[in-house]
Amino acid sequence: MTLKVIGILASPRVNGNSDLLLRQALAGAESAGAQVEYLRLIDFEIAPCIECNCCYKTGRCVVEDDYHIVSAKMLDADRLIFATPIFFMAVSAQAKAFIDRCQCLWAHKYVLKNTAAGRDRRAMVIAVGGSKSKKMFECVRLTMKYFFDAIDMNYAANLFVNKIENIGQIKEHPSAMKEAFALGQKLADPDSEPPEKPLDIELT
Ligand SMILES: Cc1cc2nc3c(=O)[nH]c(=O)nc-3n(C[C@H](O)[C@H](O)[C@H](O)COP(=O)(O)O)c2cc1C
Prior knowledge:
The chain has 7 helices and 6 strands, in the order E-H-E-H-H-E-H-H-E-H-E-H-E. By secondary structure, the protein is an alpha/beta fold. It has a 6-stranded parallel beta sheet, with helices on both faces. The protein is globular, with a radius of gyration of 16 Å. The model has no long low-confidence stretch (mean pLDDT about 95).
């Protein structure tokens, strides 16, 4: 079976650091035989959640915009690679808007008690920050734990890189690009078992 892998970029910066890592990870997934798709949230109109809670009755978001296009692709995929820069110790605004809109998927699962039981779906997150602090990754780790759970995906891995600020600077990092490729390859390996806990890669 060919696995479908979707890569979602949440950076506003095309050819930025998280973008380059994401595309490396997707190249790794493709080398493992997966069918890959790459999306950038900046190419879509996705409004923030309005907390109307209509989704608690239907499991569907009533705000009609491109959220539905991206989420349909994400739900169809077997694997997700989500890449974000660190903005003010957290994920980007584009990432947060999309994640918050997935509240309808949370409602679908936890309010309406529907799950996509039986499907082996897995996700990994890539995050890049400019400062030497690593505290910012704790925020991403927690957000992604609950996001991946809401979309019924097993949190398989994270790749966090700090001290990377300028556009494209990640290419000068001694191992990050190779690590991204290897993680994408592993994520898309059809013979691998689901991990018991996320593979945690933090690079400086
Ligand atoms: C609005 C904004 C907020 C930022 N906040 C942080 C931060 O809190 N911590 C940090 O380490 N870097 C911060 N940065 C730096 C970016 O994380 C860094 O430049 C990163 O490489 C951007 O990734 P990208 O090229 O994938 O967009 C910030 C940058 C911007 C534009």
